[in-house]
Amino acid sequence: MSRLCELAEKYGSDKTAKFRHPYTPFYDELLRDRNVQRVLEIGIGTPACMNSFVPNYEVGASLRMWRDYFPAAEIVGLDNDPSAFIQEDRILSVKCDQSSRVSLVSTAQILGGKFDFIVDDGSHRYDHQALTANTLIPKLLSSTGVYVIEDVMYPKELYALLNWPAEVKLFDYKRTPDDCLFIIEGSKI
User: Fold this and answer.
1) pTM exceeds 0.85, yes or no
2) Who contacts 139 (Cβ-Cβ below 8 Å, separation ≥6)?
3) pLDDT tens-digit profile of 43-84?
4) Are 76 and 119 in contact (CB under 8 A)?
5) Do the beta carbons of residue 186 and residue 145 sit within 8 Å?
């Protein structure tokens, strides 16, 4: 078991197969040799939306997981629900509505700079996922960074809306119908 898998289980992130998705082994392989200084996660999650997957879910599980996995990185979480916000050592939460281009552009201006890793675990709606990627990639993704869209339920529909080439990674689609990631490499755009 990788360190990232252990951290996901420790904090109760649904990015581990123990709770829902088998993403952490893939993420560990994708990210372990990268120099990640800034992480952005869209969608922090609340107990109301997460308890059916992670018993006794605590707000900020994956933000804490990323913080510990990348010990020098700044971690930023975006959510439209202030009850999901946490502010801890190297973790900042910011209000953003991923269904609104205006909100996304405004948030990008506030955050400034480039992120080495961006993960969209927000609404899981393919129109929101496409809008968010198409808006944030040119504004916030570093040239060597990676942008991942999690929990894609409609891969063909999302792929058609993206302005960027994406690798599609399917996991156990029969067990969990949204077990799909889209990976967009900054170096390939």
Assistant:
1) yes
2) 105, 108, 109
3) 997 645 554 565 675 788 899 999 999 999 999 999 999 999
4) no
5) yes
